[in-house]
Specification:
Strand content: 15-25%
Number of strands: 4
Structural class: alpha+beta
Bound molecules: zinc ion
Shape: globular
CATH topology: Sufe protein. Chain: A
Distance between the termini: 30 Å
Strand order of the largest sheet: 3-2-1-4
Largest sheet: 4 strands, mixed
Helix content: 40-55%
């Protein structure tokens, strides 16, 4: 990865950390879960409103490092309007990318903005920070109230 791209990615992450999107408790939601990453101390609560299989709204609150917070923020902007199946597919691609197993350019294109987290694969301890919001989203959708990363 060239240096300019890396800097751009860092800026996106810092921006979402400083000005997180959808950082609130939804007044109208039907799924909720609390996520905790003991390795780093990240705590992220996810609120979701799903109607007719469409993610109508999604938000988060919590405290954590820049990676966990910006990842949650970006996740909420990307999942809104998607179906549950689409969300599952995006998370699969995302997880493959941050664990360094992505080798298809096409999959990286599909990830769009989430590609800013591809540098995480060089820092294995950060993988759980980047994926916490997604695991918590999955737990909420499955009506599991809490999730702790191992
Ligand atoms: Zn963290």
């Amino acid at each position: 990865m060239n240096l300019d791209l890396r800097e751009l990615y860092q800026q996106v992450i810092l921006d979402h950390n400083k000005n997180p999107r959808n950082f609130k408790i939804l007044t109208n939601y039907n799924h909720f879960a609390e996520g905790y990453n003991p390795l780093c101390g990240d705590k992220i609560d996810i609120y979701v409103l799903i109607e007719s299989n469409i993610i109508k709204d999604v938000s988060f609150v919590g405290n954590g490092c820049a990676i966990s917070k910006s990842s949650a923020s970006l996740m909420t902007t990307i999942l809104k309007g998607k179906t549950e199946e689409e969300a599952k597919q995006i998370f699969e691609n995302f997880h493959v990318m941050i664990t360094g197993k992505l080798n298809e350019e096409k999959s990286l294109e599909e990830l769009g903005k989430l590609a800013v987290f591809q540098g995480v694969k060089e820092f294995p301890a950060r993988v759980k920070c980047a994926s916490l919001a997604w695991h918590t989203f999955n737990a909420a959708v499955k009506n599991e109230k809490t999730v702790t990363t191992e």
